[in-house]
Structures are given as structure tokens and as C-alpha cells.
Amino acid sequence: MSDTDKELRVSKIRDGTVIDHVTAGQALNVLAILGIDGSGGESVSIGMNVPSDKLGLKDVVKVEGRELSQSEVDVLSLIAPEATINIIRDFDVIEKNRVERTESVTGILVCPNHNCITNADEPVRTAFAVLEDGVRCSYCGTIVRGGDVAEHIDAHGSGETAL
Amino acid sequence: MLRDHLISAAHLSRDDIEAVLDHAAAIDADPGIVRGRHAGRVLALCFFEPSTRTKMSFETAMKRLGGDTIDMGAVESSSVKKGESLADTVRVIEGYADALVLRHPSEGSAKLASEFVDVPLVNAGDGAGQHPSQTLLDLYTIRENAGLDDITVGIMGDLKYGRTVHSLAHALTEFDVRQHFISPESLRLPRNVRYDLHETGAEVREHTDLDEVLPELDVLYVTRIQRERFPEEREYREVAGEYRIDNEVLADASEDLTVMHPLPRVDEIAPEVDETARAKYFEQAHNGVPVRMALLDGLLGGDT
């Protein structure tokens, strides 16, 4: 790979966040968690299936002009447990953090059990406890395995987590 | 004794269970010990789907405690029909009653409702989820007939959608019980219940054939295989016939086997079994009253 190729794929941003070491194939789900669908005007770069010494292949997501909240970072741990979060200001990495495992996730996932009360028209937000390998609906008990979690992200939800 | 909502059997400790069962036994022996204790208090029966035994036994229990019941009636004639949310319904009814009993077709409904009320709420069945007050009377019946430690229990039938099974399986992990689950492959225990049993380290085995385990059992808990779960009547018939017990099927069972069923049964237990000493399902149903009296007495703060 030439330096130019590398530069194209990993070009610097001035201010914002670089989410690195995302599990390959999960970049679009990362955007869903962040509620980014292009309509907010953010400048976003995505690298998918980028070679990685650590993961073999990884995705990278760079969001210009946006720093992630702690709750957003925590939710990322569900689908990208190896991710690192680099906060960029004026082209420099001023903070670098690993995602941390959370105990619960509120309002970001839809329960796949159609008969769960959270899928009825009730004034309640979804809540899931985080298990070793997946999440569990705090209302009906349905378990979603880790690899399937991304399928149940509510792109319109606003996540909250509790440590 | 329980003082809070009763949502799931998974929240019941061995001490909680034994306190309710001991109090139920005392009431059974002498109903006079609680007579009139809850005079003037009101229990709201919120049944969003049909029920006979559960509803009537809660009603009887409250009346025998000296209290009264109110009933929201059939869903078709209530404000639910106008689109009112469950959250709003229970918030309103909370203002009329000292405790609520909820039966609802959606899983997780009791937990949701409990978040909107301050008075004690009992889950009387939430879809295919849980039915913990049924479990308390099941445990009472098991304790009376086989004891609750060092026993082998077989649970057979629709294990996937059977809420009484899910609650019972959770509660039995609090005791020294070997659990065997017998069902068609398509009606095995759901993933979340198996997960919980695994987490507790419970001794559990699954079977498709009752014969594999019948001689070992002290208790056989039979549930109805629900016709409506099968796309074709023929498929239902093939499976249901495999899980019907009669005296011939029970020939290899222990003489002391206790046969239970949460009722209603259809044809999964032949009437000839009713005449044997093994049949405890009507006793089990009758136990619902003292057990629910004990439960309500605790929730309403009257047992001390």
C-alpha cells in the first residue's frame, strides 16, 4: 500500500472524533448509534475492511465537528468492543479512550419480540441489560446475541446508558 | 414476607417462597387467623385477557381476608377499547385500590405497569412470560406431596409459551431439585429461561420422550400443548398425542408420583388418572386460595 493510498483512507480531520478499531462491517451501525444519517450536515468518512494488525480487518469512522457523549461511546461497546475513540482538536489527538463495557442500554435498541410490551404504544423506552455475549430486554427477557445486536438498533432512538 | 410488586418468579428467594408457603399452610389449617384482617381494603382485578381460576381465586382470597375487589370487566367494554395505554389504565385504577392484580397478553406488561404505580402489583400472567402467583401455589402443592428438596421434577408440554412453566423453572432453582423438561423440539424452553437456569447452575435436562425419565420422577407437571401454536391441525394432533398421559403411560412411574397441571386441561391427561392418588391438579387449583391469601396478606402488610 502506498503512502498516498494510506493518506486517502486515513486522512486527518481538524476537529471531531475518530472511532478506530471498529469490528469490520459495523461502521454503518456505528453511524446508526450516533444518529448520523447525513441529514445533520456532519462531514463523515468511513473506512471499511481496512487492514489491521490487531483485528485483521477493521472499520474506521471519522466524524468532523462532533465529539461523542459518554453514553454514545458506551453503546458502541455493544457492537465494537475493541473500538478506540480519538478526540481530535486542531488536527491533534487530544484524548484517546477505549470503549467501556456498560451494564445497560436504554432507548437505543428495539426488542425483537413483537409481543413485548415495549413494542406496544406505551410511554416507555426500551431497556436492555448487557450480558457477556449480547443483551437482554429488561421487560420481556428476550436475549439478543452479540452478533445480532446491530440488527435491532433504533436509528431514531436516543441512547442512554447506565454504568 | 413479600412487601413489593410480584413480577417474576426469578425475583423470589427461597426465604420469600417459604414465608408465603408457611403462611399459606397456617391459613389453610385455620382460616380464622386472617379473617377480617383487610376489611375496607380493595383489590383491583385488571384482566386484559380471559381467566377463570386465577381471577376467581384472587377474588375469593381477598374476600376471605375481609376485603373487597373491583373488576375492570371485559376489555371490550373498558376504556382500553378506546386506545388507552396500559400505563394510563393502571395509574387510574391505582387511585381506587390498595393493590392490583394484572393479567395481560404482552410479555413485560407487569413490569411496565409496576413502574407506574406505587401500590403492590401482582403479575397474574404476562403473555408467554411469567405467572409467579401460580408458581407459589404449584410449590405449595409440591411441598405438601413430595417435599421441595432432593426431588426430581419433570415438566412436560408447551415449554416455549407456557408462562407457568417459566415461573416454576425459575423458582425450583432455589431448591435442591433436578429438573427434566419434556417437549416437542419446536416447543422447547425459550432461550432466556435456559440462560437463567444455566446461570444458576441448576441441574437440568431436556427430552422429547417422557419414557426416558418417567421412572425417576417424583413430580410430573403437565401443561397443555396449545393448538393455536401450530400452523396445521395435523401437526398439532401428531405432537399432542405423544404427550398425553393415561394410566398405561404411567405404569412405569413411581407409585408416589405427583401429577400436576395448571389447568385447564384438554386431553393431555386422561380422566382415568383423576381417580388415582397421583392426581393432584384439583388440589393444586384449590391451593390457589390459601396461597393467594398469604401472598395478599403479605403485600398488604398484614402478616405481622
Automatic annotation (TrEMBL), chain A:
Q: What does this protein do?
A: Involved in allosteric regulation of aspartate carbamoyltransferase.
Q: Which residues belong to any copy of the Aspartate carbamoyltransferase regulatory subunit C-terminal domain?
A: 105-146
Top-level taxon of the source organism: Archaea
Species the sequence originates in:
Haloplanus rallus
The similarity annotation says: Belongs to the PyrI family.
Q: Respond yes or no to whether keyword Metal-binding is given for this record.
A: yes
> How many cofactors are bound and how?
Binds 1 zinc ion per subunit.
One of the protein's GO biological processes: pyrimidine nucleotide biosynthetic process
**Which residues take part in binding Zn(2+)?**
C111, C116, C137, C140
Q: What is this protein called?
A: Aspartate carbamoyltransferase regulatory chain
Alphabetical GO CC annotations of the entry are: aspartate carbamoyltransferase complex
Q: Which UniProt keywords apply?
A: Metal-binding, Pyrimidine biosynthesis, Transferase, Zinc
The residues covered by the Aspartate carbamoyltransferase regulatory subunit N-terminal domain are 8-100
Q: Name one GO molecular function term.
A: metal ion binding
Work out whether the entry's keyword set contains Cytoplasm: no
Name the gene: pyrI
Q: How does it assemble?
A: Contains catalytic and regulatory chains.
Automatic annotation (TrEMBL), chain B:
Would I find Transferase among this entry's keywords?
yes
> What GO terms in the biological process aspect are recorded for it?
'de novo' pyrimidine nucleobase biosynthetic process; 'de novo' UMP biosynthetic process; amino acid metabolic process
Please provide, alphabetically and separated by semicolons, the GO molecular function terms listed in this UniProt record.
amino acid binding; aspartate carbamoyltransferase activity
Residues that, per the record, bind L-aspartate: K82, R163, R224
Q: Return the InterPro entries for the record.
A: Asp/Orn_carbamoyltranf_P-bd (IPR006132), Asp/Orn_carbamoylTrfase (IPR006130), Asp/Orn_carbamoylTrfase_sf (IPR036901), Asp_carbamoyltransf (IPR002082), Asp_carbamoyltransf_Asp/Orn-bd (IPR006131)
**Keywords from the named record:** Pyrimidine biosynthesis, Transferase
Report the EC code(s) recorded for this entry. Answer: 2.1.3.2
**Coiled coil (residue ranges):** none
The positions annotated for binding carbamoyl phosphate are: R53, T54, R103, H131, Q134, L263, P264
Q: Which reaction does it catalyse?
A: carbamoyl phosphate + L-aspartate = N-carbamoyl-L-aspartate + phosphate + H(+)
Aspartate/ornithine carbamoyltransferase Asp/Orn-binding domain mapped to chain residues? 150-297
Show the PANTHER family listed in the entry.
ASPARTATE CARBAMOYLTRANSFERASE, ORNITHINE CARBAMOYLTRANSFERASE, MITOCHONDRIAL
Its assembly, as annotated, is:
Heterooligomer of catalytic and regulatory chains.
Q: What does this protein do?
A: Catalyzes the condensation of carbamoyl phosphate and aspartate to form carbamoyl aspartate and inorganic phosphate, the committed step in the de novo pyrimidine nucleotide biosynthesis pathway.
Query: Would you tell me the protein name for this molecule?
Result: Aspartate carbamoyltransferase
Q: Which organism is it from?
A: Haloplanus rallus
